Q: What sequence folds into this?
C-alpha cells in the first residue's frame, strides 16, 4: 500500500515531531507497526495524534500505551461538533488530562454542522483547555477572523496552541502568533499549485513554525494519490528547507524545539 519511500535518507534526519497525524484512522490503524517503523526509519520520532470523533478516544489511548513516542490530544473535531453534548464533554473532561493538548477543535464552514453549533463546541473545549492548562490544536478553514476572535475571548493565549495545516495568509498567521500560537506547515507546501503555504514557509519566523503530515490526508506532491503517512514528514521538512535556503537539519532543530517548548512537560524527549 505504501510502495515509495521518501527522498531523505535516515542519516540526514532524526528526531522529527509530526505534530498532527491521525494514527487511529484507516488505512494507518490496520498496519500501524509498519507505518511507525517506516516513519522512524525516515527520522520521525514523535507523533501527536489529535482526536476527531469521541469513538476514537479509546483507540488513541491504546495506541499511545502500546507505541513509544505517540502522544494523544483528545477533543472533538468541528465536523463532529454536534456530538458535543454534556455527556460527551464530561467524558472529554475525564480523559483530557491524559493527553498532551486538546484537539482538534475549531471552525470550518465547509462542514455541514451549523457554525453556531461548531462555535459552542469550540468554546467549551477552549474553556476546558484553559482550566487544565493544556495547549490546543486548532482546525480552521475560511473562518480565520472568527476563530481569532473566539481565541481572544476565551483567553487562549494562556495555553497557546498550534494552527494546524494553516491555510490563511501571512498577515493572518501573524495575528495568531501574537496570541503565542505556532503555525503548522503540512504537505500542501509541496504541492505544485501551492501559493499560501509557500509564502508562510518563506516569510514567517522559523521560531513560529512546526511541521505536520495530517496523515492520512494532505499527501505530499510526489506521493499524491496514496494515503499520507508520517514518514512523508521529511517531504515537508525538505520543502521548507528549500524554500528558506536552509539545511534540512536546521529547520528540523528549530521546529522540533518549537514543538517541545509548546508541549513542554507533556511531550518527552528520549
Ligand atoms: Ni486533522
A:
Amino acid at each position: 500500500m505504501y510502495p515509495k519511500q521518501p527522498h531523505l535518507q535516515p542519516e540526514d534526519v532524526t528526531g522529527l515531531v509530526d505534530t498532527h497525524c491521525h494514527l487511529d484512522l484507516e488505512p494507518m490503524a490496520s498496519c500501524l507497526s509498519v507505518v511507525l517503523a517506516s516513519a522512524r526509519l525516515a527520522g520521525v520520532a514523535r507523533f501527536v495524534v489529535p482526536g476527531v470523533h469521541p469513538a476514537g478516544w479509546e483507540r488513541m489511548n491504546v495506541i499511545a500505551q502500546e507505541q513509544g513516542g505517540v502522544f494523544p490530544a483528545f477533543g472533538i473535531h468541528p465536523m463532529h461538533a454536534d456530538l458535543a453534548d454534556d455527556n460527551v464533554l464530561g467524558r472529554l473532561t475525564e480523559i483530557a488530562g491524559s493527553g498532551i493538548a486538546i484537539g482538534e477543535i475549531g471552525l470550518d464552514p465547509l462542514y455541514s454542522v451549523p457554525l453556531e453549533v461548531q462555535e459552542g463546541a469550540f468554546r467549551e473545549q477552549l474553556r476546558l483547555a484553559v482550566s487544565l492548562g493544556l495547549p490546543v490544536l486548532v482546525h480552521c478553514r475560511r473562518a480565520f477572523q472568527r476563530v481569532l476572535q473566539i481565541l481572544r475571548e476565551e483567553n487562549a493565549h494562556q495555553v497557546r496552541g498550534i494552527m494546524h495545516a494553516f491555510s490563511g495568509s501571512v498577515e493572518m498567521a501573524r495575528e495568531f502568533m501574537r496570541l503565542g500560537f505556532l503555525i503548522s506547515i503540512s504537505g500542501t507546501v509541496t504541492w505544485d499549485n501551492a501559493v499560501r503555504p509557500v509564502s508562510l514557509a518563506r516569510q514567517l519566523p522559523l521560531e513560529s513554525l512546526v511541521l505536520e503530515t495530517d496523515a492520512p490526508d494532505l499527501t505530499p506532491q510526489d506521493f499524491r494519490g496514496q494515503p499520507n503517512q508520517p514518514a512523508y514528514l521529511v517531504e515537508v521538512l525538505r520543502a521548507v528547507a528549500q524554500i528558506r535556503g536552509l539545511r534540512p537539519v536546521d529547520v528540523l532543530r528549530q521546529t522540533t524545539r518549537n514543538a517541545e517548548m509548546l508541549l513542554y512537560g507533556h511531550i518527552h524527549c528520549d
Q: What stands out?
A: Residues 27 and 216 are 7 Å apart (CA to CA). The chain has one domain: 16-262. The radius of gyration is 17 Å. The chain has a mean pLDDT of 94.
